[in-house]
């Protein structure tokens, strides 16, 4: 077994699309998906951009304000997530700061649990 501390991953700042106070630490990749730890400083923004593929963002700590193609802003707290479809324009802001996890790629998100994990039979 290996343990990972997402806060200790090497992060690099991202300024594309007008982003500020945003950094990422990639820690997993497969042919179909990327796993990325993210941090937004207080007042930080992930600027509006199209999702490169289906994208799941889970808030681990703090709070996020997210919007998708329709522009409606929704607040997310720890344990909550947003899913954006391929090509969907979206933006994330955090007035107080947040840490999170992004999984992007060829994902089946939101399917009933028994379809994703049939469990032990």
UniProtKB/TrEMBL annotation:
<protein>
    <submittedName>
        <fullName>Cupin domain-containing protein</fullName>
    </submittedName>
</protein>
<dbReference type="InterPro" id="IPR011051">
    <property type="entry name" value="RmlC_Cupin_sf"/>
</dbReference>
<dbReference type="InterPro" id="IPR013096">
    <property type="entry name" value="Cupin_2"/>
</dbReference>
<feature type="domain" description="Cupin type-2">
    <location>
        <begin position="39"/>
        <end position="95"/>
    </location>
</feature>
<dbReference type="Pfam" id="PF07883">
    <property type="entry name" value="Cupin_2"/>
</dbReference>
<dbReference type="InterPro" id="IPR014710">
    <property type="entry name" value="RmlC-like_jellyroll"/>
</dbReference>
């Amino acid at each position: 077994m290996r343990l990972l501390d997402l806060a200790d991953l090497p992060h690099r700042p991202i300024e594309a699309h007008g982003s500020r106070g945003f950094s990422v630490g990639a820690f997993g990749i497969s042919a179909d998906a990327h796993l990325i730890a993210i941090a937004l400083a207080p007042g930080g923004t992930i600027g509006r951009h199209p999702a490169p593929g289906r994208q799941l963002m889970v808030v681990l700590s703090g709070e996020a304000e997210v919007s998708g193609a329709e522009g409606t802003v929704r607040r997310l707290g720890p344990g909550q997530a947003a899913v954006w479809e391929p090509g969907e324009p979206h933006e994330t802001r955090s007035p107080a700061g947040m840490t999170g996890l992004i999984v992007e790629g060829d994902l089946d998100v939101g399917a009933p649990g028994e379809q994703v994990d049939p469990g032990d039979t």
